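=== Structure Prediction Worksheet ===
Name of assembly: unnamed complex
Input type: mixed (protein and possibly other molecules)
Chain count: three
Listed entries:
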Amino acid sequence: MNTNSNQESHPINASVYYNVFFLLIGLTVLTLLQPVIINLDLGSTLIVQLGIAFTKAFFIVAYYMHIKSSSPLFKKLIYTTVVLWFVLYGLMAIDTYYRYTPNDLFNN
Amino acid sequence: MSNASSTEPEIVYDKQGNPHEVIDFNNDYEGAKLGFWLFIFTEIMIFGAMFLVFGFYLFQFSPDFIAASEGLNRVLGGTNTFILLLSALSMGLSLVKLRNGKIDESKKFIWITIILATIFLTIKYFEWSHEIHIGIYPGSPTLDALSDGTKLFFGLYFTMTGLHGLHIIIGIGVMFWVLALINSGKITSTNFVVLENTALYWDLVHLVWVFVFPLFYLIY
Amino acid sequence: MSNVHKSFYDETHTVFGHHKNKILQWIFSIDHKRIALLYLFVMFAFFAVAVSTALVMRLELFSPGQDFIDPDTYNQAFTLHGVIMIFLFIIPGIPAVLGNFLLPLQLGARDVSFPKINLLSWWLYMLGALLAVTSLFIGDGFADTGWTFYAPYSIKTDTNVIWALSAAFILGFASILTGINFVVTIHRLRAPGMGFFKMPLFVWSLYATSWIQILATPVVGISLIMVILERTFGIGIFDPTKGGDPVLLEHMFWIYSHPAVYLMILPAFGIASEIVPTFCRKPIFGYHAIAISSAMIAGVGYLVWGHHMYTSGESEMIKLIFSALTFFVAVPTGVKFFDWIATMYKASIDFKTPMLWTVGTFITFIIGGLTGLIVASVGVDIYLHDTYFVVAHFHYAILGGVVFLMFAGMHYWFPKITGKMYNEKHAARAFYTIFIGFNLLWFPMFIAGMLGMPRRYFDYLPEFEIWHKLATIGSWVFALGLIYMFYTLYRGWRYGELAGPNPWNATTLEWQIPSPPQLPNFGEIPYVDYMPYEYKNGEPVRHLDLSVKEDKPHE
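=== Predicted Assembly ===
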């Protein structure tokens, strides 16, 4: 059963914060250096930049926001939201992609 | 507040006589955290919708967006990224210190976070005033003379960074409130959920910037 | 035995401590039962305003040509009707009134998780309402864009669109807070032993509803904000002259507003799931199926918004996808209907007023729902889009579904809320009056729509006259029925007989405590290790007395 106490403290200590911090610093430097190191077209730039951003987001959510040590309920809720956004973006992307193709479905 | 007379938890027994605790809604740590996470989801939906708009126009006006992105000041933007990173760290550390009972150090870290947030806003102010100075702001004659994609890029730029800045301002306000609560003894090393939720909020603000920064400043 | 302790009408908790003043005791109360009643009265005040606006519009349409209001006023009238009905009445409707009142009672909790935030959302609701009302009287009057606020008209018109938008934004915020409150309450405050699949079905439907409130409302919130920014600063996002795309606003608007209709109907379905087993004296058929179908409707309903935009210029591909998804929503809805009908099968049904309303709703909602499938198919909808057919479909589904079930719920829980009983005979007659008036009002609109009568038009061609006349006459019958019903309820509240804790022999927890409930809801919280609707030989399996006893003062 659920317990109702404020003391149920999963062990967190400062070292986790520092480690994640340095990791994030590293990723940020990578983000800034990407244009300097390699010059990519828009699509690849987006993939690289968003890939780094999602990695950072993962670490922030998992460690800074303590999801790693939270109950499964929180994890499920976060998966749900992320999946929901991917579906929404997907539907919108389908519309955007086909909108500017005349007679998109029935062209002949 | 109310129902305070019953300090010990209410116990219910099932048929086998096993005790079960009735959760007191006035003092429910998990509930408070869950509630705040749900609020964070609404924030994610808000910013997610803005990114949706951004993506929608990025694909229609890619060359304009790339050109406009080049005009933004990456040094200031990058500095701000590091400042937010630092502030997220200090916010997290203040929570760690509080839970370890080091109230003064915890307060010190909150002050550091407030100062970093203020620096972020100041830099943002200089960025914006530079752009406004050269005549780029929504509805300005200079901007209206430019291409559609550029107009949309700056429209979105001001809306999204403005919304993010608003969240930072609110965050600063909340931190002062938290400091007051710590001083009056309402937040302690065992009753820390308000500070924890504030830290979650601050991480959210950071999280949004993690996406805003590359999408606006680094797509060229 | 009961009523030793005072009811929640006599004592309360307020947010600022004690008040001598009765009104302050109400408007600052953090007791979920009082907040529910606060919502109830404000909501029905606005309902009356919106019904009056609708009556004025119908009266104007009684005969062709301009009769007594001018076209601009007509535009503002239908916007006002839509904004009030949608944002101030239907969306908060069942969750904020019956949900607030019943959720903790059905879960065996003493209050919702965040009572103060509950009060805050009522205050935000009032603020939003105030903004909407104020904009009626200043400048060029109320927005004339329709409740959908489509660009580019909404960024061009001179009326007070910003006020209406801010009102809608604030009301959305209130709705989000209620949703957060309910989800946390359901997750945290269930009585010990009550797993998710032992909750009453009304709670299940509120759970699904609350998720829609949390995840969909912010999207419309930010798009309304962007329209405001568009009007004040000209950021250009939805302005075609600056490269913006108005269809994008429609997308974002419907990403919320389509789930919003499920947000309206789901708690109504929950009410039906409570009433049907009670008056059939049988355990409900397919408990799990109904519970899961609520979640499914919420989930799939999130992904069908594009069917509002078949004629707005979205791509052919996405039209087909949205059409298919829309048809799919009918599946979980059908599951619910078959379950209710299976529950009623071979039961000796007790046709008390709540059951009458529910069965009446089955008829009207099936018409509303099945015509929904007609307009969900792309080809047919191109023809029917923006005609009276859609208007009739919407009102059959929302008025004939949500509002009818809300009335069913109000009759069902009336004895619990007031402690008194209304006059059964008059209540039943009021139902028949409303039911006849309703069908006379809306059914002709299906026909007019198929013949090509466009919606939101101030005037019409002579061949549509007969349908408009019928509808207007129906609107009078409908309005009379409403007055009759509210008067019956009022008389019941003032002069009715005492109802006792459990007048319907129902099984859920709220019937095991006195009517009206006492301030702490329960004397002792039960251990719930049984299903919510357990009947044997037409009688509830359990009779509990959970009232607060004198010797156990809870504060």
